[in-house]
Amino acid sequence: MRFLNRGLSTGAMSVVVPVTAVTGVALSVLCGVLVLGDRPGALAWLGIAVTVPAL
């Protein structure tokens, strides 16, 4: 949260917010797959692939 607030105060919100959103999604998926051993199905991967560019 500290980095988000620092980025918002020093950078353009049009850059900081989407980068933060994509990073949050990517970290959640990577932690689930690599650390917890989750194995999302093809439909879940398709949803992730469609959602990330939309952010």
Can you describe this structure?
With 55 residues, this protein is mostly helical. The chain has 3 helices and no strands. It starts with a helix and ends with a helix.
What value does the average pLDDT take? Answer: 82
Q: How many DSSP H or I helices?
A: 3
Portion of residues in beta strands equals under 5%
Termini Cα gap: 18 Å
Radius of gyration: 14 Å
Number of strands: 0
Q: What is the structural class?
A: mainly alpha
Uncertain residue segments: none
Helix percentage: over 70%
Order of helices and strands: HHH
**Overall 3D form:** elongated
- What profile does the largest beta sheet have? none
Can you give me a brief rundown of this structure?
With 55 residues, the chain is mainly α. 82% of the residues lie in helices and 0% in strands.
Fill in the keyword field for this structure.
55 residues, mainly alpha, 82% helix, elongated
SSE order and pairing:
Elements: H1 2-10, H2 13-35, H3 42-54
